[in-house]
Design a protein that fits this description.
Blueprint: H1 3-11, E1 27-31, H2 35-47, E2 51-55, H3 58-68, E3 72-76, H4 84-94, E4 99-103, H5 109-117, E5 121-124, H6 129-146, E6 151-154, E7 157-160, E8 165-170, E9 173-176, H7 181-191, E10 197-199, H8 200-207, H9 215-231, E11 238-241, E12 245-248
Parallel strand pairs: 1-2, 1-3, 3-4, 4-5
Antiparallel strand pairs: 6-7, 7-8, 8-9, 10-12, 11-12
Helix pairs in contact: 2-6, 3-4, 7-9
C-alpha cells in the first residue's frame, strides 16, 4: 500500500467541503484488505465527490466507525480478525448506518445472509467501480430522504407510507390502487429500491413478519398486485425476473 494513500486515509477524518454548494460531502468507510480493489474504489468514490477512510481489518473498521461516524460502510465479507459478518452484526447493534457488503462470486448464499443480518445491499467481486458508486449514492439519497420523506415515487407510482395508500399518476389523473395490507407491504418494500431484483425469500422475510409461507403464496400476492397496477395503466411496472424474483421498474 502506498504511503500517499496511507496518509490520505489517515487525514480523511478532517472536514472536507464538496465543490457544489460548499456542503460537507458524505464520508464512506471502506473496510477491505484487498489493496488493489480498495485503491480502485477509493479513487472512484473521490472522483464522485465523496470522502473516504479505509480500514484493513474488522477491529479497525469498528474503531473508525465509532470515532468518525461515517455516512456509509462498504464492508468486505472476508476481513482479517473480526470478519465482515461479525462487523455487520456489531454495526446493526450500534444503529442504522447504511452498509454495502462485498463478497466472493462463489458464495451466492451470502447475499441473502447479508440482507437478513441488516445490510442495505450486497455486491460480488469483480464489480465495476461505477456500479459501486451508483449503488452507494442511491443508498445515501434514500437514507437522507428517509429522515423526512413519507412518500416514495417510482415513475408514475406514488406510495404513501404513513397512510398505507398507493396510486398511479397517468395523464394528470391520480388512480388509487385498492391494495390489501400484504400487497401494500410488498409494493412499499420494492419501491424503496427500484430496479433491484428481490427474491421470494427476501420478500417473505421483509413483508410477512417471519410467518412461514410458501413461495407460491408470494407469487399469488405479486400476481394480484401486478393485475391492479395493470388496471391503473401501469402495466410493466412490476416485472418477473425468471429464476430470480421480482423487480419494480423505474417506468411503466
Amino acid at each position: 500500500m502506498s504511503e500517499r494513500l496511507r496518509f490520505r486515509w489517515i487525514s480523511a477524518a478532517a472536514p472536507v467541503m464538496a465543490a457544489a454548494g460548499g456542503a460537507m460531502s458524505s464520508l464512506i468507510l471502506i473496510a477491505d484488505d484487498d489493496r488493489e480493489s480498495v485503491e480502485t474504489l477509493d479513487a472512484a468514490l473521490r472522483r464522485d465527490g465523496l470522502r473516504t477512510v479505509v480500514a484493513e481489518d474488522g477491529e479497525q473498521a469498528l474503531d473508525l466507525h465509532a470515532r468518525l461516524k461515517p455516512d456509509l460502510v462498504l464492508l468486505a465479507v472476508a476481513l482479517p480478525g473480526r470478519d465482515g459478518w461479525d462487523v455487520l452484526g456489531e454495526l446493526r447493534r450500534r444503529g442504522d448506518t447504511p452498509v454495502v457488503m462485498i463478497g466472493a462470486p462463489d458464495q451466492p448464499h451470502h447475499r441473502l445472509q447479508a440482507l437478513r443480518i441488516g445490510a442495505d445491499d450486497h455486491l460480488v467481486r469483480p464489480t465495476a467501480p461505477v456500479e459501486v458508486v451508483a449503488r452507494i449514492q442511491s443508498i445515501l439519497r434514500r437514507a437522507a430522504g428517509g429522515r423526512t420523506a413519507k412518500v416514495l415515487r417510482v415513475g408514475p407510482l406514488e406510495v404513501q407510507l404513513e397512510n398505507y395508500m398507493a396510486a398511479v399518476m397517468k395523464a394528470g389523473e391520480r388512480r388509487r390502487l385498492d391494495l390489501t395490507l400484504t400487497e401494500f407491504r410488498i409494493l412499499a418494500h420494492m419501491a424503496r429500491t427500484p430496479l433491484r431484483v428481490f427474491s421470494r425469500g427476501e420478500i417473505m422475510q421483509a413483508c410477512f413478519d417471519n410467518q412461514a409461507v410458501l413461495e407460491r403464496t408470494i407469487d399469488s400476492h405479486v400476481s394480484h398486485l401486478r393485475r391492479k397496477l395493470e388496471g391503473a395503466d401501469a402495466a410493466g411496472l412490476l416485472t418477473n425476473v425468471r429464476g430470480v424474483g421480482y423487480r419494480l421498474e423505474a417506468e411503466a
